[in-house]
């Protein structure tokens, strides 16, 4: 799990850098909607990598049984030993604890903020005034019936929230502070968010930030993603309106930009101050998004992103498969520790090592063992002396498990000492 997080955080960071570097070009020449669409590459990349690492071959490792002959044929009871968490498990525990802690904090902050607004539902007459023009617009009327409208004297900017029970919150003086044209465009802006499923994508983006909380680039990327979302929404709102409406829309955005409370990672903040300058600039140079160019850019980027992930996963799978498809040409049996044999202790050790081009083994490390320490030294000493058939290329981080088992005389005669390849559930790659 930890190795997957490290690999993905490196790949996603590079992908974010690419999106930010190309953002001015894509936004200017193709359109803000196309640039916003490219952010879907991040969750798509994560999904593909998760599918790849759970392929059957990826979760295989070689098992070897190490026996200690004893005269008694009866079953030997295993002495209870301490089984401390490995470093891998400690890191997973810390990572998961922070994820859960951040998730709980996010939910509590959001619920506390919404509760503090003291929302009041608008009457049917006011609702008709607000949505009268929107119901005539293509694509907007389908989502009008799926949200409720509330007002609050605690907010200065409109916002929508709720994946399943969507609500639109407006300032209490919304009808008085904005003229008809401005109200129509603000409503169109919020309806565009709903129509495109932006609340869902916001949740997906938040989940990515929580999963990679240790990477500051992901926190920065979330803000850039939301900025791209607003630019794309602006473009969509103005696409069906004359150029003369840009000034009214810009004034409406500025009025909505009065600073409100900053709640981390929530759906609020209609227009963040640090993004308003770019939004104003894009309004001056507004161009319709080129649909064909948007589709072409995604057709190029999606296969590239998927292929990088699949090649990376396939390379690891291929290495492990090549190692597990053949047995060592020379294998030294680990010496069963005398003290462990006397105390009837059994256990196992999982090791990671590299297979060099000449078939020798190097960089032998203990990944996990049960019980701790007891069989580690004997395992490392033995595996360092193993020889494999010369591979086509150097194989890194190959996994092998040594099972230390106390054998009876009957099992010894029946060939208890053997080699086999099995599937395991633990994802140790």
From TrEMBL:
<keyword id="KW-0812">Transmembrane</keyword>
<feature type="transmembrane region" description="Helical">
    <location>
        <begin position="248"/>
        <end position="270"/>
    </location>
</feature>
<comment type="similarity">
    <text>Belongs to the TonB family.</text>
</comment>
<dbReference type="GO" id="GO:0015031">
    <property type="term" value="P:protein transport"/>
</dbReference>
<feature type="transmembrane region" description="Helical">
    <location>
        <begin position="6"/>
        <end position="26"/>
    </location>
</feature>
<dbReference type="GO" id="GO:0015891">
    <property type="term" value="P:siderophore transport"/>
</dbReference>
<dbReference type="InterPro" id="IPR006260">
    <property type="entry name" value="TonB/TolA_C"/>
</dbReference>
<dbReference type="Pfam" id="PF03544">
    <property type="entry name" value="TonB_C"/>
</dbReference>
<keyword id="KW-0735">Signal-anchor</keyword>
<feature type="transmembrane region" description="Helical">
    <location>
        <begin position="38"/>
        <end position="57"/>
    </location>
</feature>
<feature type="domain" description="TonB C-terminal">
    <location>
        <begin position="321"/>
        <end position="413"/>
    </location>
</feature>
<keyword id="KW-0653">Protein transport</keyword>
<keyword id="KW-0472">Membrane</keyword>
<keyword id="KW-0997">Cell inner membrane</keyword>
<feature type="transmembrane region" description="Helical">
    <location>
        <begin position="199"/>
        <end position="222"/>
    </location>
</feature>
<dbReference type="InterPro" id="IPR052173">
    <property type="entry name" value="Beta-lactam_resp_regulator"/>
</dbReference>
<dbReference type="GO" id="GO:0030288">
    <property type="term" value="C:outer membrane-bounded periplasmic space"/>
</dbReference>
<dbReference type="GO" id="GO:0055085">
    <property type="term" value="P:transmembrane transport"/>
</dbReference>
<dbReference type="GO" id="GO:0005886">
    <property type="term" value="C:plasma membrane"/>
</dbReference>
<dbReference type="GO" id="GO:0031992">
    <property type="term" value="F:energy transducer activity"/>
</dbReference>
<feature type="transmembrane region" description="Helical">
    <location>
        <begin position="90"/>
        <end position="108"/>
    </location>
</feature>
<keyword id="KW-1133">Transmembrane helix</keyword>
<dbReference type="InterPro" id="IPR003538">
    <property type="entry name" value="TonB"/>
</dbReference>
<feature type="transmembrane region" description="Helical">
    <location>
        <begin position="291"/>
        <end position="311"/>
    </location>
</feature>
<comment type="function">
    <text>Interacts with outer membrane receptor proteins that carry out high-affinity binding and energy dependent uptake into the periplasmic space of specific substrates. It could act to transduce energy from the cytoplasmic membrane to specific energy-requiring processes in the outer membrane, resulting in the release into the periplasm of ligands bound by these outer membrane proteins.</text>
</comment>
<keyword id="KW-1003">Cell membrane</keyword>
<dbReference type="InterPro" id="IPR037682">
    <property type="entry name" value="TonB_C"/>
</dbReference>
<dbReference type="InterPro" id="IPR008756">
    <property type="entry name" value="Peptidase_M56"/>
</dbReference>
<protein>
    <recommendedName>
        <fullName>Protein TonB</fullName>
    </recommendedName>
</protein>
<dbReference type="Pfam" id="PF05569">
    <property type="entry name" value="Peptidase_M56"/>
</dbReference>
<keyword id="KW-0813">Transport</keyword>
């Amino acid at each position: 799990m930890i190795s997957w997080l490290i690999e993905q955080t490196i790949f996603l960071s590079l992908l974010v850098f690419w999106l930010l570097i190309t953002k001015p070009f894509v936004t200017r020449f193709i359109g803000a909607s196309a640039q916003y669409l490219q952010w879907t590459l991040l969750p798509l990349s994560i999904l593909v990598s998760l599918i790849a690492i759970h392929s059957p071959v990826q979760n295989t490792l070689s098992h070897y049984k190490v026996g200690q002959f004893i005269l008694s044929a009866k079953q030997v009871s295993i002495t209870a030993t301490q089984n401390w968490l490995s470093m891998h498990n400690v890191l997973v525990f810390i990572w998961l604890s922070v994820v859960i802690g951040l998730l709980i904090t996010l939910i509590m902050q959001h619920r506390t903020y919404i509760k503090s607004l003291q929302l009041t539902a608008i009457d049917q007459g006011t609702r008709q005034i607000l949505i009268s023009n929107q119901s005539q617009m293509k694509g907007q009327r389908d989502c009008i019936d799926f949200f409720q409208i509330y007002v609050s004297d605690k907010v200065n900017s409109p916002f929508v929230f709720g994946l399943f029970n969507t609500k639109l919150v407006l300032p209490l003086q919304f009808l008085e502070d904005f003229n008809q044209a401005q109200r129509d465009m603000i409503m169109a802006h919020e309806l565009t968010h709903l129509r495109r499923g932006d609340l869902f994508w916001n949740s997906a983006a938040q989940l990515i930030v929580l999963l990679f909380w240790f990477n500051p680039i992901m926190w920065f990327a979330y803000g850039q993603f939301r900025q791209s979302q607003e630019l794309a929404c602006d473009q969509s709102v103005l696409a069906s309106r004359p150029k003369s409406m840009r000034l009214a829309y810009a004034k409406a955005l500025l009025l909505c930009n009065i600073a409100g409370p900053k709640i981390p990672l929530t759906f609020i903040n209609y227009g963040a101050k640090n993004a308003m300058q770019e939004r104003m600039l894009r309004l001056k140079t507004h161009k319709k998004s080129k649909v064909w160019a948007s589709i072409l850019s995604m057709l190029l980027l999606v296969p590239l992103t998927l292929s990088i992930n699949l090649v990376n996963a396939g390379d690891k799978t291929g290495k492990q498969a090549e190692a597990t498809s053949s047995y060592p040409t020379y294998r030294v049996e680990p010496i069963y520790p005398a003290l462990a044999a006397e105390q009837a202790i059994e256990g196992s050790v999982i090791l990671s090592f590299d297979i060099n081009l000449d078939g020798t083994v190097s960089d032998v490390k203990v990944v996990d063992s049960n019980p701790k320490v007891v069989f580690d030294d004997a395992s490392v000493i033995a595996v360092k002396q193993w020889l494999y058939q010369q591979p086509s290329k150097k194989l890194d981080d190959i996994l092998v498990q040594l099972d230390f088992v106390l054998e009876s005389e009957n099992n010894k005669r029946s060939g208890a000492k053997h080699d086999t390849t099995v599937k395991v559930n633990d994802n140790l790659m």
